[in-house]
Specification:
Layout (H helix, E strand, L loop, with lengths): L3 E5 L4 H12 L3 E5 L19 E4 L6 H6 L1 H22 L2 E5 L23 H14 L4 E6 L1 E2 L11 H10 L4 E4 L3 E2 L2 E2 H13 L6 E4 L5 E2 H10 L8 E4 L1 H4 L14 H7 L6 H13 L1
Parallel strand pairs: 1-2, 1-3, 3-4, 4-5, 5-10, 6-9, 7-12
Antiparallel strand pairs: 8-11
Helix pairs in contact: 1-6, 3-4
Length: 283
């Protein structure tokens, strides 16, 4: 019997990829792009039966979250509780998309058992969402970092999109050589979330990231090399020189070995993930 699945944030970077992947897989999937802060938005879903609710909707602009903490709280904390409560009412397993930046970013290579220590309000709000998820017996926390390009017409500009746009328009770049990440493309994450759903397991904490680590400066160089006509100037700088008023974790790398063992999967290399995004853009 086909699983019934609801995906919040279905117009976003990850939500749209999950929606597409699950539909292609023949699953009965529905997208929700309404206001997760407002309980009235859930009226049409409350009497439905779902096997999974995948919660990707969030405010992710770190600077914006710091400037407007009320909005960040309402969306990332109150909104997450609303969606979790909907999952409980519908009898659904609840999969919450968190972030690798819930950790302090001092040591890096964080595993699933390490205790988060968030360093700014956005990260605090995402950790609060983890606590809300952990209180539900069928809740799964997925920590990751995402790179990719939003679907056409969708809102948002992430690091990778800013990088692509800057390189294509020959803008000068300041690239952080002291920020380490091991993200996955939104397409690969959608595939892996499908694996989780089909595994018939309720994993409490999952880490999904590439098998190797690059700095944001190294990712920038990789993208620049894909555009031979680029004529801008590139400077490699410390994030501390640019983000003086906001504490950001420098090492957001996560260890995924336990998740790989649980799901019987192997994480891809980051260079291959970047090439996958280029391939998607050309298709």
């Amino acid at each position: 019997m086909s699983k019934a699945i609801l995906v919040t944030g279905s117009n976003g970077l990850l939500g749209s990829a999950i929606l597409s992947k699950l539909k292609d897989g023949g699953l009965a999937v529905e997208g929700f792009s309404g206001d997760i802060q407002n309980e009235k938005s859930y009226t049409k879903y409350k009497n439905k039966k779902y096997d999974w609710i995948i919660h990707t909707a969030a405010v992710t602009d770190v600077n914006g979250c710091e400037k407007n903490r009320r909005n960040c709280f309402n969306v990332n904390i109150t909104g997450t509780k609303n969606v979790r409560d909907l999952a409980s009412k519908c009898g659904a397993a609840f999969l919450y998309i968190s972030t690798a930046s819930v950790f302090s970013g001092v040591e890096g290579n964080y595993n699933e058992e390490d205790v988060p220590n968030p360093s700014n309000f956005y990260n605090v709000s995402k950790f609060a969402g983890e606590i809300i998820t952990s209180e539900y017996e069928k809740g799964t926390i997925v920590r990751t970092n995402i790179i990719g390009v939003h679907p056409q017409g969708s809102r948002g500009k992430n690091f990778f999109e800013w990088l692509l746009d800057s390189v294509k328009s020959n803008q000068d770049l300041n690239l952080f050589n002291d920020v380490q990440i091991n993200p996955l493309s939104n397409c690969t994450l959608a595939n892996l979330i499908k694996v989780i759903i089909e595994s018939e397991k309720i994993l409490r904490v999952v880490h999904l990231g590439s098998s190797n680590t690059l700095s944001k400066a190294q990712i920038g160089k990789f993208v620049i090399e894909s555009e031979p006509s680029y004529t801008g100037t590139v400077k490699f700088v410390s994030i501390d020189k640019v983000m003086k008023d906001l504490n950001r974790p420098k090492n957001m790398t996560i260890n995924c070995s336990q998740t790989e063992k649980e799901l019987g999967i192997a994480m891809p290399r980051l260079e291959d993930e970047i090439n996958l995004i280029f391939k998607e853009l050309k298709s």
